[in-house]
Amino acid sequence: MKGIDGTRDGWIAAEYLGDGWSLEYGESLEKIEFDSALVDIPVGLPENSTRLCDSAAIKYLSPERHYSVFNCPVREAVYAETYEQACEINESRTGKRISRQAWNIVPKVREADETAQKHKINEAHPEVFFKSIRKESVKHSKNSQEGLEARLEVLKQFGKADSPGSDLPCTEDDAVDAMVLSLGKIFKLKKLPEAPDTDAEGIEMKIMKPETGDLSD
Prior knowledge:
217 residues, alpha/beta, two-stranded antiparallel ribbon, 8 helices, 33% helix
């Protein structure tokens, strides 16, 4: 199982090796080889409502990192040609427009949607993983030095995690996010929500999380 996170121009994938990680970069998901993967991008697109898994993740990450989860646009909005069209479609279906942040990652949402219909990928959220493993690790934003160091300390419990991704076209926090998701291979995972809905393509709309207590306890 690999952990995969989107970067500015492609994807970063991590594989946990037991005492550290191997990292690779691909311009598209098709260029990354995997048998199964946890991906930090929506998998399973709603038709007429917000997704229960997004609401469950927001609730789980409150009050620290809930804003790191956005409600996935409906399928027709994801495949709209312009931002304004996407906003109009999403508002007519859910009562909510979509953010610019959500629109900016729409190309990757489309790519994941097409991949999920052919290969085994599941959605996961790095902040959900970090909080599951050590609650205090998400006290500060990953974009702060303090927050990044706290997340690296979590990874160092499992192997060497020095300057991850420094030789690849990604940011350090992109690499860290992929690395923590790759730990899905050693944890028993549960679904958020426990009984997810499926989308029009039969894909479960769920976010996977480790079924574990805080390892710092």
